[in-house]
Amino acid sequence: MPDVYFSSPHLKYLNQQLQTLEPEEILKWCMISLPNLFQTTAFGLTGLVTLDMLSRINAGAPRQIDLIFLDTLYHFDETLELVDRVRERYPNSKLHIYKPSGCANARDFECIHGDNLWDTNDNLYDYLAKVEPAQRAYAELNVKAVLTGRRKSQGGKRGDLDIIGLDDAGLIKVNPLANWTFKQVREYVTKYNVPYNSLLDMGYKSIGDWHSTSPIAEGEDERSGRWKGTNKTECGIHNHRSKYAEYLLQQEQKKNGEALVDALHEVGLQWAI
């Protein structure tokens, strides 16, 4: 399938059409229309529903849409246990796991980058644990389009979410369940006995890293347990990539500036001698 390019008017038209379709129909359209299509997932409820729908659409097919999972090295044990159950339930869905560069486990990450980086430098943590691994996955797998688990009812920046859009690097992102509520997602999981994270039975609704995820009270927004007490609402992979490019440039300039100061200081000492 050749590459596909969408202009703004084309995207607007597509969204008008896709808004009228059920998620299964959106997924069928994606499979026919989009090249190099993958599903990105952290095995949240919406992603699991998407995976189950795909397995039903492609029932009997030897290969399903491939999955990309970003293992930040700080997922809950319950999440990693769920990964094993998902692999068993959907054996025809190939899972690609990407970790922070040069790290096999949390100890490796902390030896290189220090302890509690998410507290000391949140932007750098997001880049190293999520953004860079995602970019590496997209490049190595030649990803052109991804299915995500984002929904409007999750709140925050997702309230005006489109079905289909482009990120600032041209990656096509499709949100097939954008118009579904948490209740609809949960009902589907129950109806089809879809495996899910056991933390959901303990008051969690949106589950990410253990250090930035909390259970929520009845009536709170679905994602209010993520980064509680901060203004943060997104984990990094759905922010503009340019945000991190600008941040890295600033860090490099700061590093170069410090090196220049050190060099000038050294020269000054030599002249003093």
TrEMBL record:
Belongs to the PAPS reductase family. CysH subfamily. It comes from Tuber melanosporum (strain Mel28). One of its GO terms (cellular component) is cytoplasm. This is phosphoadenylyl-sulfate reductase (thioredoxin). Keywords: Amino-acid biosynthesis, Cysteine biosynthesis, Methionine biosynthesis, NADP, Oxidoreductase. Coiled coil: none annotated. GO terms for molecular function: phosphoadenylyl-sulfate reductase (thioredoxin) activity. Pathway: Sulfur metabolism; hydrogen sulfide biosynthesis; sulfite from sulfate: step 3/3. GO terms for biological process: cysteine biosynthetic process; methionine biosynthetic process; sulfate assimilation, phosphoadenylyl sulfate reduction by phosphoadenylyl-sulfate reductase (thioredoxin). It catalyses: [thioredoxin]-disulfide + sulfite + adenosine 3',5'-bisphosphate + 2 H(+) = [thioredoxin]-dithiol + 3'-phosphoadenylyl sulfate. The keyword Aminoacyl-tRNA synthetase does not apply. Residues 37-215 form the Phosphoadenosine phosphosulphate reductase domain. Its EC number is 1.8.4.8.
